[in-house]
Amino acid sequence: MKKYFQIIKDGWRSCDDPDGIGIENEWFKGIKNAVNPAKVPGMAHDYSYRTWYEVDFISEVTVRSRERCFLSFAGVPYYTRFWLNGEYLGENTGRNNEFDFDVTGLLRENCRLSILCINPSPKFDYNGMTQANLAISWFSAPRFQQAPVLSVKPDIFLRGIFVRSCPDSSTVSICAEIENLTSENESINLTVILSENASSHICGKAKVSAVSTPGKITVNMAVSVSDFHMWSPDDPYLYSCNILLSYANGEKSDIRTVRTAFRKFFVDESGYFNLNGRRLYLKMTHFGNAWPLSPDTADDLSGYRRLMIYLKSCGFNAVRQLASAPLPQILDICDELGLLFYSEHSMAWHKKDCEQTEILFRESVEAVLKRDRNHPCMLMFGFQNETLVKAEGAWTTDKLYHAVIEAPRYARALSPDTVFFLQSARFDGNRHYGSVCNPGSCEWDGYMGNESPEAPDLVVDRHIPNYYTPEMGDVHLYPVMPYGKKVKDTLSEFNKMKRGVFLSEAGVGSLANIFAANLYFEQYGLLPQGKEKEILKSHCHEFWKFYHDYRLDRIFAAPEDAFKASQSLQAKQRRLYFDLIRRVERFNGYSMTMATDANLTGEGVMDTFHGVKPEMYDVMHDGWSDLRFCITVSH
To answer: Which of 88, 123, 600, 630 could form a disulfide with 512 if both were Cys (CB 3.0 to 4.6 A apart)?
Structure first.
């Protein structure tokens, strides 16, 4: 049976090249130095500025007449160069790009793929720019998000598909990019069949004819749906859009299937979220991208499916990926479960200006939106997180801020139905701009809190550390525990706001269970290195000093009991924080810090390796109840 694709994920090797001798010594024909086993997809356990990867594989695909063979990549380290069987293919710059190389003439039965990765960091620059300037997440070891794929495609094929389901017009519109690799014009037909994902019931069809000229053309078409079903967290109703490309004689050329859904999400004039004509209180949590078990690598997709199911059962209806983009496979899971997704990109946090800031920012945004816009769950996108606007000093960010303000003018065309968020926490303090840009708009005119178009266009550093930025509609709140009258009074102040306010970060931490983390590392066959090794060593030192200084051995039978007691206290404090937050009528949603103990911080509702913390499920399930009595005691 003919095989059309092959995933190249086994047998990878890697070798660091600190002195940059690999190209001169032709490592693309075979690494001469000692190599280590490598995991692709996966994340490097330690940082290296320059690393070579190679793999030997037997080609299992067959290329026939009127076909080409492509080697496809997605989510590779920031700067990469590629060779197949010693022949140079090309290079890529950027983390979230999807790209491929035509390797038809280079394919042999026994192949060797070689990749050179350059990984800029705070210490090592790339073309004069460091990690702080580039679209690389702030806590980001080198990683491959996806394994390379060898695939066979026809001479004329579907290069890209954008499907948009519009409830206002009762239509599903399809924009198909078709690539013709021949030198001749070819008459083609494009057929679309829309069906219900669950039952396969056909809801509508459409067909158009066109002439495919050499190169790329775009074909637009639409399918009318008379009786459609809306997608929501309670009923994640999906449709399958099957797009068939064929020649004029009826011979099939290519086929793609894209899932879609009808939904309408925006912020109303009162500053509250609205989904499908009804107010929706966002019950959200967020992820980081730290190793291990990062949500932007495909190490353990089954683990992330279990995690998302757990969060949904706790009562969450939304999740956020902090300062990076998630794997498309995780968005698939959220599409199916009915979890709204708030995505970000790698230029969103811990970045400073350089000469190319505006270009790099736009490239980062466009790469994520183009890749993920077909997902029904991808209803929110954040341009920036917790960034003060500074025009002077060693860490200037005014170019970044200007890039954020201008971003909807090009991003809206790429993702028409997404709510854009200016900056999570609004450290800019500029009330003139609304915190969101709604679908149908290219301006920051989705006002929350005390934001107003009548306010002066003026950046004001009014952020209160550990608290929030007054008068803004998107806030973070991390008061020091225990929570007393000051915290209660602070939260009560939000009810004086003119519009709804999004509490986009707030949470309660516990001691990070470093003993359990060490056991998990062993269980997963991982050796903590680099930052994780430093974090574990530091936590162990600080814990033992704390344990002995306060004579906790008189209280607990074993150190592990101290971690359990801390997690139990975390659950109690989260319950109290729920009482204080849910009683605030002006809050239109709450994103809880955070889903897991990223970087062994102890701030998650689950631990670093997705283990359930004691008592936490009952607290979450009760806290997210639609109707909840929030009783607080003043005296």
So the answer is: 600
State both tokens at 575.
Answer: 């319950």
CA distances 577 to 136, 495, 624, Å, are 34, 16, 12
For residue 456, what are its two tokens? 């002066």
Report the chain's C-alpha Rg in angstroms: 26
Q: Report pLDDT digits (tens) over 224-248.
A: 998 999 999 999 999 999 999 999 9
How far CA 130 is from CA of 62, 212, 392, in Å, comes to 43, 43, 19
> From its phi and psi, is residue 386 left (phi > 0), alpha (psi between -120 and 50) or beta?
left
Helix (H, G, I), strand (E, B), or coil: what is residue 629? coil
Render pLDDT for 136-187 as a digit per residue (tens, 0 to 9).
876 556 678 899 999 999 999 999 999 999 999 999 999 999 999 999 999 9
First to last CA, the chain: 77
Distance between CA atoms of residues 143 and 78, nearest Å? 9
Contact 278, 262 (CB under 8 A): no
pLDDT at 388: 93
* SS3 state of residue 26: coil
User: pLDDT value at position 462?
Assistant: 81
For strands 98-102 and 149-154, give the pairing.
Answer: unpaired
Is 128 buried (19+), middle (13-18) or exposed (0-12) by CB count in 10 A? exposed
- In which residue ranges of the chain is pLDDT below 70? 1-2, 44-47, 138-142, 290-300, 524-533, 634-635
Give me the residue label for tokens 């911080």. 601
Q: How many CB atoms lie within 10 A of CB 458?
A: 10
Q: Compute CA 388 distance to the chain's CA centroid, rounded to the nearest angstrom.
A: 23
Neighbours of 420 (CB within 10 A): 25
Q: pTM (2 decimals)?
A: 0.95
Distance CA(92)–CA(79), nearest Å, equals 6
Give residue for tokens 């797009």.
243
Q: What CA–CA distances, in Å, run from 176 to 75, 179, 222, 363, 631?
A: 23, 10, 11, 22, 55
- Coil, strand or helix at 422: coil
CA dist 507 and 459 (Å) reads 27
Q: Angle, nearest 10°, between helix axes 514-523 and 530-549?
A: 150
CA angle 609, 614, 619 (to 5 degrees): 110
The secondary element (H helix, E strand) that includes residue 207 is: strand 202-212
Cβ partners under 8 Å of residue 541, min gap 6: none
Q: Put residue 512 in one of left, alpha, beta given phi > 0 → left and psi -120 to 50 → alpha.
A: beta
Q: Is there a contact between 473 and 499 (Cβ–Cβ < 8 Å)?
A: yes
Q: Give the number of other CB atoms < 10 A from CB of residue 509.
A: 19
Contacts of 193 (CB under 8 A, 6+ apart): 202, 204, 205, 241, 242, 244
